[in-house]
């Protein structure tokens, strides 16, 4: 993929960039290695000052930065501004809480025949971050904020369709006063990643992206015995049981499916409804989905903008076409609109069977798969019948059902009577083909730390 800003609302290529040469990459890796030594020697207060400064800059730049994000990947301007605000909040959260998260963990000295025993959390060094385009700012900040507070430095290989956002991130931390070389953007293609990860000066990697990308990074890191955190997408279940508030569930389901134009790893994608309330939920859900406004993402009242890439839309079209050819019903949407840009309408697909591609694959667009479950056991069976295990949702007011699904979901996250989302204060990550490792909270900040055991006689 060319490194370029292409407006997905029009298909127009606005700006192209050259990939870094091998010599330029070497210079950046060398700078990062030097920065790692300098940054690890800084205090928590100094690091926190950088993060708070970056948050203040985001507040100041919100309008212009939102336009850049919308222009590069098509998210609505309202969503872009909300993402920027979330990033500023995340930066301040880690500035405030990282010292307590990384305080020495005191062990039982008597149990190990010591006068003192504890665990100290120390940075690994240079971390390579390979990031996707769908949340071009937040995906990076949720690594960078805890990573920098832990004393690590970052090299960012961002998605090739958001180069201006990627360059902004490097400039953001420079302006905030981070040590020279402490966070650098690498405008490179995917084929150049392996050589960087195998470099001895790079200690670890984190990736959010496709299964294929995750397997590739994981294989390379494994051969080098390097730590890696992988978040590889999901096909999250959204289970609705008879005691649920159906009107609220249907409204939240629409937001959960259509957020970020349907391009979110933790977006609810499979809607599994108990047969007793299936018909009524389906009616309400279709009504809400069909009421979403698709259009110019720069307009404040637009709900759904274009998909980020032409190939991304084609992938959605192919999954829906395959399903309908094999007997699925379209309850709303399903037709590619005329005109420029890579738009796709909010769509609900019902009567899905296991031989359809849509049953097992993640749909990265505003397409909801609707399933009828005969009872709670059947609902849980359908929910877990996937290779993914990122987020999950259940809607019920029955305590026994809540316990059943909290325990029974094969997922990294369970949200009850609410929409799956990410917060700095709770862990984020998945199981099965959704990857391994955790981001955010104390679990995320410690992923790229050496947990050093200290025993004193």
From TrEMBL:
Stretches assigned to the Aldehyde dehydrogenase domain: 3-454
Keyword Oxidoreductase: yes
CDD domains from the UniProt entry: ALDH_SSADH1_GabD1 (cd07100)
Pfam families for the chain: Aldedh
Keywords: NADP, Oxidoreductase
SUPFAM superfamilies, A to Z: ALDH-like
Keyword Oxidoreductase: yes
InterPro entries named in the record: Ald_DH/histidinol_DH, Ald_DH_C, Ald_DH_N, Aldehyde_DH_dom, ALDH_GabD1-like, GABD/Sad-like
Family the entry assigns: Belongs to the aldehyde dehydrogenase family.
PANTHER family the UniProt entry points to: SUCCINATE SEMIALDEHYDE DEHYDROGENASE [NAD(P)+] SAD (PTHR43217:SF1)
Protein name: Succinate-semialdehyde dehydrogenase / glutarate-semialdehyde dehydrogenase
Organism: Williamsia serinedens
């Amino acid at each position: 993929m060319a490194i370029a800003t292409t407006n997905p609302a029009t298909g127009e290529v606005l700006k192209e960039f050259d990939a870094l040469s091998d010599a330029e990459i070497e210079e950046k890796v060398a700078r990062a290695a030097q920065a790692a030594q300098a940054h690890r020697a800084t205090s928590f207060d100094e690091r926190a000052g950088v993060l708070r400064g970056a948050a203040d800059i985001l507040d100041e730049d919100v309008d212009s930065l939102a336009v850049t994000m919308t222009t590069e990947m098509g998210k609505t301007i309202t969503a872009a501004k909300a993402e920027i605000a979330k990033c500023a909040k995340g930066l301040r959260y880690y500035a405030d809480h990282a010292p307590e998260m990384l305080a020495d963990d005191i062990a039982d000295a008597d149990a190990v025949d010591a006068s003192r025993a504890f665990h100290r959390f120390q940075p690994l060094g240079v971390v390579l971050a390979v990031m996707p385009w769908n949340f071009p700012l937040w995906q990076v900040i949720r690594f960078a904020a805890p990573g920098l507070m832990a004393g690590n430095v970052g090299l960012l290989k961002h998605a090739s369709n958001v180069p201006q956002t990627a360059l902004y991130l490097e400039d953001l931390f420079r302006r905030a006063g981070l040590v020279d070389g402490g966070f650098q953007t690498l405008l490179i293609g995917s084929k150049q990643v392996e050589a960087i990860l195998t470099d001895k000066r790079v200690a670890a990697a984190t990736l959010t992206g496709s299964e294929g990308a995750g397997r590739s990074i994981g294989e390379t890191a494994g051969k080098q015995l390097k730590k890696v955190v992988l978040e590889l997408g999901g096909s999250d279940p959204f289970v609705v049981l008879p005691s649920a508030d159906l009107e609220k569930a249907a409204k939240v389901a629409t937001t959960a499916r259509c957020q970020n134009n349907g391009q979110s790893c933790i977006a609810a994608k499979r809607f599994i409804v108990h047969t007793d309330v299936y018909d009524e939920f389906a009616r309400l859900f279709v009504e809400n989905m069909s009421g979403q406004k698709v259009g110019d993402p720069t307009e404040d009242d637009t709900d759904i903008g274009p998909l980020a890439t032409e190939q991304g839309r084609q992938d959605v079209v192919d999954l829906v076409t395959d399903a309908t050819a094999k007997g699925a019903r379209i309850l709303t949407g399903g037709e590619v609109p005329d005109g420029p840009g890579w738009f796709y309408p909010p769509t609900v697909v019902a009567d899905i069977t296991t031989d359809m591609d849509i049953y097992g694959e993640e749909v990265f667009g505003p397409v909801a798969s609707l399933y009828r479950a005969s009872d709670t056991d059947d609902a849980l069976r359908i929910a877990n019948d996937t290779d993914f295990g990122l987020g999950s949702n259940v809607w019920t007011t029955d305590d026994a059902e809540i316990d059943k699904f909290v325990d029974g979901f094969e997922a990294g996250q369970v949200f009850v009577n609410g929409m799956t989302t990410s917060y700095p204060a709770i862990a984020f990550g998945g199981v099965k083909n959704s990857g391994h490792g955790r981001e955010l909270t104390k679990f995320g900040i410690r992923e790229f730390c050496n947990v050093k055991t200290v025993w004193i006689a």
